[in-house]
Request: fold
Amino acid sequence: MCPTLLQLSLAKVTIMANKRKEFGKIYDEYIDKIYRFVFLKVSSQEVAQDLCSDTFLKCWEVYNNGTKIDNIQAFLYRIARNLVIDHYRQKGRTQFVSIESIPIIDPNPGLEEKLAFNSDLELIKAAIPNLKENYQNVVIWRYLDDLPIPEIAKLLDKSEEATRVTLHRALKALKEECNKRENFTS
Reply:
């Protein structure tokens, strides 16, 4: 017996509902990470919200077409990174990173620890914008988004070894920049 048009329509509606539900889970899992990444790049809440929405919209278009996405997280970061690049190309602005709006919660720190931590954090906030974009990205992905090296390697289209080297160089450059700033204020 052949399926009726109504049965085919109901099956299609069910498939679409399942896709939306699955994508909703993806959205819930990654929205905060993608937003933070974009915000650190553009330093504007409104622009970050727009670019973040565009990121998930573009991802939905690909996801809804049935294209297989091997690594959804890497795919989202790649879209977000490309949208940020396009944003700066269109606006003709230079890029800088600001970490001031990221709350970092330390459970039960003492007063001395709080002061030292805040001092170090301010130093790092001031130093990160002076790093190369690739260095900024690997530091943000590794230490703010807690991405493992293999994930970062996929985002950069590099081997894991090359990614470790890039991260090492980024941390070295960050340390040098922090030392310059520390010596300048002393």
